[in-house]
Design a protein that fits this description.
The chain has helices at residues 3-11, 13-21, 28-54, 61-67, 69-78, 82-103, 107-129. The N and C termini lie far apart (37 Å). The chain is mainly α. The relative contact order is 0.15. It is globular. It has one domain (12-129).
């Protein structure tokens, strides 16, 4: 995997960590955190969508529908009270990480996703505990 992907992945953690550390600064911080989280979750589904479109054996209606789940779950989370949103987002990140492990066999990508998902889930847990 190219180095740029690693740097961009780690840079994507900045809003999660920054908003978690600054959660008391503004009431809008919670909205910013959950919205950013839903967007990133949707992005993870888009990765599988791109793979499905590039590999004919993956381009099945079932797989393409599954690729839409992160977007729908992220959107649903935004409609819930904060504790419900955080719980749904944590579960979605963990389930999608498990799905990634069974579907994408690139060790470098798997390692990166594990690291990124761990930090994201920890940030969500901090929010959940303090909500």
């Amino acid at each position: 995997m190219i180095r740029t992907a690693h740097w961009l992945g780690y840079a994507g953690l900045i809003p999660f960590i920054g908003l978690t550390l600054g959660k008391e600064l503004s009431p809008l911080t919670a909205v910013a955190f959950s919205t950013y989280s839903a967007i990133i979750l949707s992005f993870l589904g888009g990765i599988h969508w791109g793979v499905a479109l590039s590999k004919p054996q993956w381009s099945t209606p079932t797989r393409l529908c599954l690729c839409m789940l992160p977007s729908l779950l992220g959107w649903m989370a935004l409609l819930l009270p904060m504790s419900g949103a955080l719980t749904l987002l944590i579960g979605s990140y963990l389930i999608w990480w498990l799905w990634d492990r069974t579907q994408l066999d690139q060790p470098d990508y798997r390692r990166l996703r594990l690291q990124l998902t761990a930090v994201v889930v920890i940030c969500h847990l901090i929010w959940l505990i303090q909500t």
